[in-house]
Amino acid sequence: MGKKWFVLRVQSNREEKVRDSLEEFSRVESLGEKVPKVLVPTEKVSEIKGGKKRIIERKLYPGYIMIEIEVDEQGNIPSDVWYLIRETPGTGDFVGGNRKPVAMASYEVERMLLAAEREEEQPKASINFKEGDRVRIKEGPFENFDGAVEEILEASGRVRILLTIFGRTTSVELEYWQVEAV
Q: CATH topology for 2-125?
């Protein structure tokens, strides 16, 4: 018997509640060793609202949770675990085949677990525009200038803007929160 990861559809915006319920029910039913982990993959994102910078946690896959289950020799989910999951409020069905859930591929599991470990790193900037978008600078020496997004530098949370100053096109690098979409 081995452990496999499966994707479970759940009600949107109730992922944490369903996760907590599954963990509690598996503990009460003494199935903790058959359902060792239930994850709601998230990432930390910094955003500016109302002029204040704050860090929020955003779900990577809204409406889905990942669940590790100990399967039998044929790769089937044990019936007691199957019923525990199906009877938990807020759960839908497994992602996969018509009758038999399909386990996640090993490379998908590795990527998901690495992303969960990186959660402690610096939060990513929430940049709401893309290259080529028209923007207006709302702060700094170029305030009220309009330009186009040339490049988005996500790692540093900066944006490179093409502006026309005195009839010449100039590239300016600014923080993402200093510009707004037009």
A: Alpha-Beta Plaits (3.30.70)
